[in-house]
Amino acid sequence: MNRRGRTLFYRARRPVVAIGVFVFAVTARAQIQVELKLPRLQYIAYEPIVAKLAITNLAGRDVDLRDGEGQPWFGFEITGREGQSIGRVAASKPEGTLRVPAGKTVTQKTNLTPLFPIHDFGTYRVRAHVYFADLNKFFYSQTKVFQVTDARPVWQKTVGIPEGSSGAGNTRTYSLLSNRFPDHTALYVRVEDKNSGVVYATYSLGRIIAFGEPQAELDRANQLHVLHCAAPRSWAYSLVGLNGELLRHSALMETKTRPRLRHAADGAVLVM
Asked: What are the mean pLDDT values of the chain's consecutive 10-residue runs (272 residues total)?
């Protein structure tokens, strides 16, 4: 073959090689698909932010996702408003092996709130990654955005922990807050120790309508009872413990009169 023929021959082969490399790269990237979902865009400080991770196996065989060489098989990357990386406040613990059958999707749910310092008001961006030890390769989800906002204080009371209870002698502060979303307003409860700065719980007690402020009463054990109007003629009752436990939650329908919280002679709180 003369020089001109060899030159044309090699030029003809180059696109084939490039296409082969491209197909291999696409195949490698597509072996595991990672999708991240957040329930909503807006949260209040210390509220649970539960990320749902959907992992789809496109490798054509069953895959075992496992930690390898000190690298957890999945994790999250969070950045703040200025683009600064936000590190974990809790060390990663070993995760068990997760088997994903070929062509199937499995899901994982993770509460980001106790893992990262994301309590300051502002906008955050989060991306999930999955480490595939067999290939020593990371697969990434798309980036999701969420906001941590302020909530309107409605009611607050600091109480002592009674004798005979765990933590007796310390104090707890109960707070009721309301947060307006685009389509509704929600009532929240927060339980914290303001002396130590520990927040034990922050969560929603459900929707509230502008029909008077919620009622809040403390029983003889300093547990918090809350009664609020969730919809026309519909009320919600909640009992919250000193460490933020939701001990009781029920719905009530209004008949002739509105329900009220009342103290009994023995210090118990009743819904009348």
From this structure: 48 44 41 94 96 94 87 92 88 76 94 94 96 89 95 96 87 96 93 95 93 90 96 94 96 88 90 88
Concatenated DSSP letters of 20-82: HHHHHHHHHHTTEEEEEE-S-SEEETT---EEEEEEEE-SSS-EEE--BTTB-SEEEEEE-TT
